[in-house]
Design a protein that fits this description.
The protein is α/β, with parallel strands linked by helices. It has helices at residues 47-70, 79-87, 94-104, 122-135, 148-153, 156-165, 179-184, 191-203, 218-236, 255-260, 268-281, 309-320, 324-335, 348-364, 369-378; strands at residues 18-21, 23-24, 43-44, 109-113, 141-145, 167-175, 207-212, 240-243, 288-290, 303-304. It is built from 15 helices and 10 strands. The chain has an 8-stranded mixed sheet. Helix 2 packs antiparallel against helix 3 (94-104) and helix 8 (191-203) packs parallel to helix 9 (218-236). The two termini are 32 Å apart.
Length: 381
């Protein structure tokens, strides 16, 4: 069986998607807060390589359906069939395991990897999209990452061609709308380009997810980061605003700025205050605000604007009104997986369990609670 090439990451919202690698790594690869592709060289895959992967996927889909018929599952991908392929006595290659799970989840969504698929010439990408949809007719949604500057260079006609060929959604790392901060982290894009690119995606009829990074501006730029990011989002009105709280790792280039003091990190509570200011300044949008990552402290900051705005602000105020002891309990409980929302703290058993864990950690680690929480957060990246 031909190996099906896959890249290292995909958005959490694409957990049930088939992964199809269009390019290897990132053509920009200078963002100081990203460590995923550092030390790796960018290269586009050829259309022929990608078509071979699509053919291999199609062949595996056909074989899985044949296995289903032979096993008495009437061609359906049932839990019993999934179990037999994943854990049965006959070993199946990884390709089978990944694809049977994709089929079990509906076989409808595909995510194009890696960091910037739209860097591929539009005519080639249209050819790939067309071949993909013709080969796998069950596909209903095709999504990808792209840099805003790459989108800004595409014509409106090219973007419509991609939409017509089946591209359903583009995920864009906006991170911030504040130009000095974008320069500091070497994002390689301006607020104006972010706006132009976002509008171009929406005008083409393609769904748009914009990712923002609370905490990225540190203590010096937090206010401008919040206000200017809200301004850019107001101009774009993306379909989704997705939150990825900034966490500095030693393997990230930006960590040098942390060590030298050029970037002074915000605490969890300070990031919550920053988020409040940003949400307060979001106005006139109809975006769905999604806090869909474990790095985000307050998962309940989620909902469609404008209806959810006041509820989200109230959740922030509820957190900030807690005592310091209660906030520390929630922070640890959230990072350790005991809490998903502030309401979970009302569970006396859970609260007591987290409290006892905190007491033990603080006794065993003279550095206090914050280093322990930081280590937990690092494990999520």
């Amino acid at each position: 069986m031909t190996d099906i090439e896959q890249g290292p990451i995909r958005p959490p919202s694409e957990a049930q998607s088939l992964l199809l690698r269009i390019t290897r790594n990132c053509p920009w690869n200078r963002c100081e807060f990203c460590h995923i592709y550092k030390g790796q060289h960018f290269s586009p895959r050829t259309v022929e390589e990608i078509k071979k992967d699509i053919d291999a996927i199609h062949a595996i889909v056909s074989e899985i359906k044949a296995i289903s018929w032979n096993g008495g599952f009437s061609g359906e991908v049932t839990p019993a069939l999934v179990k037999s392929i994943l854990h049965g006595s006959q070993p199946y290659p990884d390709g089978y395991q990944n694809i049977v799970l994709w089929l079990y989840r509906g076989g409808k969504n595909v995510f194009l990897q890696d960091a910037n698929s739209l860097v591929v010439p539009t005519n080639k990408l249209v050819e790939i999209l067309t071949y993909l949809k013709n080969s796998l007719p069950s596909i209903e949604r095709i999504t990808t990452y792209s840099r805003a500057r790459t989108i800004a260079k595409k014509s409106a006609e090219e973007m419509r061609d991609l939409h017509d060929a089946g591209l359903s959604r583009i995920h864009v790392g906006l991170e911030s709308g504040y130009d000095p901060l974008l320069n500091l982290v070497q994002k390689g894009v301006t607020a104006k380009e972010l706006i132009d690119a976002g509008r171009k995606v929406k005008q083409a009829g393609i769904s748009l997810s914009e990712y923002i990074m609370p905490g990225l501006g540190g203590k010096a730029m937090w206010r401008e980061h919040a206000v200017e990011t809200a301004k850019v989002l107001n101009e774009i009105d993306p379909d989704f605003i997705r939150v990825r709280t900034f966490k500095a790792l030693q393997v990230m280039p930006i960590y040098q700025k942390v060590e030298t003091g050029e970037l002074e990190l915000l605490s969890d509570d300070e990031i919550v205050v920053e988020q409040r200011l940003m949400i307060e300044n979001l106005d006139g949008i109809t975006s769905y605000f999604a806090s869909d990552h474990i790095l985000n402290l307050l998962e309940e900051l989620e909902g469609k604007f404008p209806e959810a705005k006041e509820r989200m602000l109230a959740a922030i105020d509820r957190y900030l009104a807690l005592s310091q002891d209660e906030r520390n309990n929630f922070r640890l409980g959230r990072r350790a997986g005991y809490y998903r929302s502030l309401d979970d703290m009302q569970n006396t058993e859970l609260y007591t369990r987290v409290h006892l864990i905190r007491q033990r950690l603080e006794k065993e680690n003279p550095g206090g609670l914050d280093p322990m929480i930081s280590q937990l957060m690092e494990s999520f990246l």
